[in-house]
Amino acid sequence: MIDQLHLRRIKAWHDSGPVQLAPVTMLLGSNSSGKSTLLQSLLLLRQTALAPDRSVHLNLGTDEGRDAVHIGRFATLLAQGLPAPQHCSIALQWQRPEGERGARGRYACTWGATAQGAPVVQTLELASVARSFRLVRRAHGAYALYVDGATRPRGVGPELAPERAIALPPQALALLGADAQHLQDLSLALYRTLESLIHLGPLRRLPARELAWSGAAPGELGPDGQHAGAALLASALVRSPQQGSVLRSVAHWLERMGMAEQLSVQPVGRTGRYELRVHHDGVAANLRDVGVGVAQVLPVLAVAYSAAPGSTVLVEEPELHLHPLAQAVLAEMFAEVSQQRQVQFVVETHSEHLFRRMQTLIARRQVSTAQCRMLFVERRGAQAVLTPLDVDAFGAVRNWPPRFFGDAMGEAREQARARLQRLREEA
To answer: Where are the domains of the chain?
Structure first.
């Protein structure tokens, strides 16, 4: 799980300050306020950590669409209008399951630009409670390696350049001696934390009418949820003690939302192809033939139960095409799954219904304020500013931002005024 995120000089974020994340974190605010950049920063680190080229310092993405984020040029990532030097940084804190090496750690990396405008690591720090390791870039591409608070480096040279911005090369490990294992544990824990990030974007692909059975579950659902159907197919067909559990869990929440009572997998002819059927009000129909809301929420539910425990799921606008009741039930799903399956959710949403239900869950003591954090993001000029909402034990927000979800009270007053005016005119 990621406990904290801190951005500096990235797009609209001049300095986000330490952003505390919870098992369920809700990002709220207007369009183009900077919410998506918080998610993109984590995805940038992930695709860098998973890059095939060990020498890459920051994978900005490609046109081929294999990467979750495509920034293009490093200059596009940098906040505009700030004085030199032109650099940016991402820092985070993580915790892994107890007993795992490097279970708790801190990471901070600062990037500048080469003469050709490509990103290059300026400083890299990996630290635990007990130890810290820091690389600092010097002239001519050389790096100096420091341990803890030492003022003299263990070594200096271009061969000490970091790998994928999260690890040190073998030459640096050789200089560390007995300390090398501690650093390797931290790098591996960071890699596993980033590897377990799952992204589901705001626009989900419509499901296929028929699915071919590959014989195994998909590795990932994809940012547009294109493999959600395959994950449900695998749940129904792969023989194991958990056979059908994901399919039943998804159907359970669809029923809570009033959208279906059951999901089933049916063979289509004898070709090894199948269809997902949605059962609602006594009628069974192909998933492609039911309302678009079912197709849009299905990947959200599927990823919640397909993600491995310890994963962090980044979800953008899960409420898309859902009616108000279904949007509210999503809050219950996020809270319940995070507690039962130890899956972290960072949810970017515009849904007042989802937010209000989370307040109700806090008031009912089904969720604590430690388990759910609500963060409001707004633009003040060219700069993004984040305000943690101060939610009390009864779900009430003490620092309610002005015009947070529009002006509901003002609309009610205007309706009453217009009604009174018409009654007077018609009298």
So the answer is: 1-196+308-399, 205-306
Neighbours of 134 (CB within 10 A): 19
Dihedral through CA 305, CA 307, CA 308, CA 309, nearest 10? -70
Q: How many residues would you count in the chain?
A: 427
Helix (H) or strand (E) holding 386: strand 383-388
Side-chain half-sphere exposure of 63, counting CA atoms within 13 A: 1
| Residues 173 and 193: beta-carbon distance below 8 Å | no
Is 70 exceeded by the pLDDT of residue 363? yes
**Top-confidence residue, 16 or 84:** 16
Residue 203, pLDDT above cutoff 80: yes
d(CA 235, CA 248): 9
Burial of residue 339 (number of CB atoms within 10 Å: 0-12, 13-18, 19+)? middle
Q: Collapse the DSSP code of 55 into the 3-class scheme (helix H, G, I; strand E, B; otherwise coil) and give the result.
A: coil
Q: Is 332 left (phi over 0), alpha (psi -120 to 50) or beta?
A: alpha
Overall CATH class of domain 1-196+308-399: alpha beta
**Which residues, listed in sequence order, are joined to residue 5 by a DSSP beta bridge?**
19, 92
The C-alpha atoms of residue 210 and residue 294 are separated, in whole angstroms, by 16
- Reduced to 3 states, what is the DSSP secondary structure of residue 208? coil
Nearest by Cα to 197 from 62, 109, 314: 314
The pTM score is 0.93
SS3 10: strand
Confidence band of 64 (pLDDT split at 50, 70, 90): low
The C-alpha atoms of residue 161 and residue 405 are separated, in whole angstroms, by 48
Taking only the tens place, the pLDDT of each residue in 402-415 is 777 766 656 666 77
Closest CA to 218 of 232, 208, 239: 232
Cα distances (Å, whole numbers) of residue 146 to 132, 149, 168: 8, 8, 12
Res 264 pLDDT > 60: yes
